[in-house]
Amino acid sequence: MSPVFPMLTVLTMFYYICLRRRARTAARGEMMNSHRTIESNSRTSPLNAEVVQYAKEVVDFSSHYGSENSMSYTMWNLAGVPNVFPSSGDFTQTAVFRTYGTWWDQCPSASLPFKRTPPNFQSQDYVELTFEQQVYPTAVHVLETYHPGAVIRILACSANPYSPIPPAEVRWEILWSETPTKVNASQARQFKPCIKQINFPTNLIRLEVNSSLLDYYTELDAVVLHGTKDKPVLSLQTSLIDMNDLEDDDYEEKDGCGMDSLSQKFSSTALREGPNNGYFDKLPYELIQLILNHLTLPDLCRLAQTCKLLNQHCCDPLQYIHLNLQPYWAKLNDTSLEFLQARCTLVQWLNLSWTGNRGFISVAGFSRFLKVCGSELVRLELSCSHFLNETCLEIISEMCPNLQDLNLSSCDKLPPQAFNHIAKLCGLKRLVLYRTKVEQTALLSILNFCSELQHLSLGSCVMIEDYDVIASMIGAKCKKLRTLDLWRSNRSVCDTDIEELACNCTRLRQLDILGTRMVSPASLRKLLESCKDLSLLDVSFCSQIDNRAVLELNVSFPKVFIKKSFTQ
């Protein structure tokens, strides 16, 4: 028999397997996103009419351009019917995230990125919206009024936020996702991505955005959820297969949202027996470790099940010195942390941002993990981790004696008294308290004991009343300070505070005082004369800093980028 025929037989069998796989996938409503999939046609009877509804409430978000005590440029503008659409332009009645472009990642206050971040996880911000009725989604429309193109993922949750009974299980499903793409036009548009069907009703939708390719802030006006009360019947057209669907991207994307079966992967002890470990036995241990450093965490879990040698390498704590769990926020839970625990005894950088919400991680589970894995921690990212309470911060202060970098951005559910425990972390060099309820007494204690601080973010900390006292303490205790974020700080920062910084914090490289009304050009000139390394100064919406003042400062200090927006 010709060798061609066995090869054809193998290819035929492979193609048949692919067809079966895609048919099963379509039947479950899997992977109906982007240009690689075929739009599914839902057949609805007259009794199963489509429900169209605008968002009822904004329940969570990572950042916004507006102030906590205002409606201008805040995420809360996404609730209800459109305020602006179909008009185009810059409107205060829209929802705007805090950043755009790449300058945010290049400024002096930016942190180094985590290694092993999956390439398909590129979300920078998110907003979660609830709707009145639970429906099986058939469409999600996003009304964008200025510089569209930031939305890259849309997800649905099985939990009903308005139900008095806690759900037995909470699931997140990706309805649509795409890599960031640049939209050349800045005009308004109604963004209508082709979403996949899911097998549960939802009234909780999450948008994730990436604004890195935008030339200016994206502005969103409203979100419309289309759906049916009863589960729609899939059309036979769904089973049709696009040849592009035979790629492996769907497998990767599933891991991009969550750590499916992570616990099982880590707990699996039954390794396949093989004759030997091939050429890996001949490679130096360090070389294999270096090769494995390029794998994402789910791939590391899979590889650990191939043979005993690679299992030993994949479970080596040296593989988990930098651990980024943010991409897996939708699946990470107490069980996942428990199985990671033994491998993370040497972890130094840990990113738990966005994780643990809606009961996924308990205070007890987080505490157990840190008691085993906190001794070597240098950096801890906990942005938008709403499971945190005072006990968690107490555990951090006791179990992480070497901590230098703590990010609590948008942890707005933490009670004010919890922040007193941060003062015990005397080695802190970076502290992010953006959109938290830290009060003046706790902050003064932190500044007094954490004299090594180099980066401090107090943006939108509306419970701080007297910045004169804060500036005096910073000047007296934090002389190594390099970046200071006073974004929308109750508009109480004044010339005295700026002059205090000019006299005592001469290493400053970045200062953000957006929204202040009592800072004059004269005090800024003193600051720029004293702080020779200052490279970024944000004076947007500072009412005393007009166009002429900015031009004069630019002429005198050409190396300083002075960021200014003139309209509120």
Automatic annotation (TrEMBL):
CDD domains: F-box_FBXL4. SUPFAM superfamilies: F-box domain (SSF81383), RNI-like (SSF52047). It comes from the Eukaryota. Residues 277-332 form the F-box domain. The keyword Repeat does not apply. Keywords: Leucine-rich repeat, Ubl conjugation pathway. This is F-box and leucine rich repeat protein 4. It comes from Canis lupus familiaris (Dog). The lineage of its organism: Eukaryota, Metazoa, Chordata, Craniata, Vertebrata. The gene is FBXL4.
